């Protein structure tokens, strides 16, 4: 698939779901963190809880952000095939406008028993990968024992 067409399709897909997984390293060890996302001006803006400190490991480094429809496809909420998208590029802490923050919608009340305090990261995707599975989730399974 042509790169520009794939990027447009990936942006279209990411808008279908609200949360994804941020991947980076902390003290040379890999970790994943859940984040809420929006696409703003062709970049992925993430909202996370500042109390966990994950944003500090991401600010100024290259990260990956993955989004998929595995849960909505499995429950029948998404009538299309299974897909996953990954965006990779540098991230930086940003301060969205009030209108942009409003677009994120309601925030969690707590994270691990602490009040949710938002922090925002902007990911400038340099690489975009997209994968689809060539079957529909309602397709009967052909597993054999």
Describe the structure.
Helix content is 19%, strand content 43%. It contains 4 helices and 9 strands. It has helices at residues 3-14, 54-58, 70-74, 98-103; strands at 19-26, 29-40, 43-49, 62-68, 83-94, 110-111, 114-115, 118-123, 127-132. The strands form 2 sheets. Strands 1-2-3-8-5-4 form a 6-stranded antiparallel beta barrel. A two-stranded antiparallel ribbon has the order 6-7. A hairpin with a 2-residue loop joins strand 6 (110-111) and strand 7.
Short description:
By secondary structure, this protein is an alpha+beta fold. It has helices spanning 3-14, 54-58, 70-74, 98-103; strands at residues 19-26, 29-40, 43-49, 62-68, 83-94, 110-111, 114-115, 118-123, 127-132.
Write the layout of secondary structure elements.
Layout: H1 3-14, E1 19-26, E2 29-40, E3 43-49, H2 54-58, E4 62-68, H3 70-74, E5 83-94, H4 98-103, E6 110-111, E7 114-115, E8 118-123, E9 127-132
Antiparallel strand pairs: 1-2, 1-4, 2-3, 3-8, 4-5, 5-8, 5-9, 6-7
């Amino acid at each position: 698939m042509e790169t520009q067409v794939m990027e447009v399709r990936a942006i279209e897909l990411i808008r279908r779901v609200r949360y994804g997984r941020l991947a980076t390293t902390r003290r040379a060890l890999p970790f994943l963190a859940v984040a809420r996302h929006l696409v703003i001006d062709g970049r992925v803006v993430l909202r996370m809880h500042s109390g966990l400190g994950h944003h500090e490991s991401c600010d100024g480094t290259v990260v990956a952000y993955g989004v998929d429809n595995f849960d909505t496809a499995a429950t029948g909420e998404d009538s299309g095939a299974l897909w996953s998208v990954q965006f990779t590029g540098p991230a930086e802490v940003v301060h969205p406008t009030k209108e942009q923050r409003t677009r994120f919608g309601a925030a969690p009340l707590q994270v691990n028993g602490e009040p949710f305090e938002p922090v925002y990261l902007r990911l400038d995707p340099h690489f975009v990968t997209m994968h689809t599975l060539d079957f529909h989730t309602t397709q009967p399974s052909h597993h054999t024992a």
